[in-house]
Hints:
With 262 residues, the protein is α/β, with parallel strands linked by helices. The chain folds into 2 domains: 13-190 and 228-254, 3-Layer(aba) Sandwich (Rossmann fold); 193-227, no CATH class. The chain has helices at 22-33, 45-55, 72-86, 109-134, 148-151, 157-177, 195-206, 212-218, 230-241, and strands at 13-17, 37-42, 62-66, 91-94, 139-144, 182-189, 252-255. The chain has a 7-stranded parallel β-sheet, sandwiched between helices. It starts with 12 loop residues before the first strand and ends in a 7-residue tail after the last strand. The model has no long low-confidence stretch (mean pLDDT 97). The structure holds nicotinamide-adenine-dinucleotide. Nicotinamide-adenine-dinucleotide binds at residues 17-18, 20-24, 42-44, 67-70, 95-98, 118, 122, 144, 146, 189, 191-192, 194-197.
Amino acid sequence: MSTLSTTALAGRTIAVTGAARGIGAGITEAILAAGGNAVLLDLDEAAAGETAQQLDPGGAHTLAFAADVTDPVSLDRAVEATTSRFGRLSGWVNNAGIVRMGPAETISPEAWTGELGVNALGVFLGAQAAFRAFDGAGGAIVNIASNAGKVGFPNMAAYNASKAAVINLTRSLAAEWADRGINVNAVCPGSVATPMLHQVAEELARDGKGDAGTLFAGMVPGQLGRHVTPPEVGEVVAFLLSDAATIIRGQAINVDGGETPY
Ligand SMILES: NC(=O)c1ccc[n+]([C@@H]2O[C@H](COP(=O)([O-])OP(=O)(O)OC[C@H]3O[C@@H](n4cnc5c(N)ncnc54)[C@H](O)[C@@H]3O)[C@@H](O)[C@H]2O)c1
């Protein structure tokens, strides 16, 4: 249940990449609860459409499109189709991301480039698409980084590097686009109960680190004592998209239930 005002994002249209499931679906839910329109972008168009249908059964406040964050043409195409339905976009959430677990010494150049391609370049291309979509009238961008971008966990070197890039890209764009009326922030989730976290547990189990179910159950922030949920992350993102967050700029805010003290 959202505690943010039901009008915090009224009259706003916000694109969310990787919105078909997991944290992206939770962000979409929070945007709708705050009175905004949501544009669900995902590689998996059918799944994005199903998520939109579940969260907004009449379809009055959502659109779903196939888009690949590494392909700016697909992002611009979706923006164009959105504008004719809802008008100008004024918010963008770069959420799509991937992770591949494994020892640093075995990561191939292709695997490194692939992971940074989606997680770092994809966020940059999404921010550029947002800049074009805002059409000189300003807006808010929220990037989904990770506490991995601050901590540097074992067995995910490329992921850690990609998320550190997102954190500093957030600072760079906040400084560079402030005079364009664009506010840019990031959030850093820890362990959120999503298909990605199950995948992490399964890949660690594959590498002999334990049983997947036990590993998943153990990925819980100690202070909170349970997994963080996607709508909880979504609510913070919705706040950062709102006018109430105008004084928060270029930050990378932990939403990890206390997993990371810095
Ligand atoms: N789950 C966690 O514990 C956790 C923790 C920290 C950060 N994050 C970050 O949060 C974001 C969402 O994670 P999640 O757990 O919901 O992941 P998920 O794997 O459950 O969902 C990711 C979604 O992104 C889509 N996607 C992947 N590549 C894409 C691309 N190139 N273009 C468009 N869509 C694409 C997928 O189809 C999927 O629907 C990611 O950036 C992830 O790194 C997750």
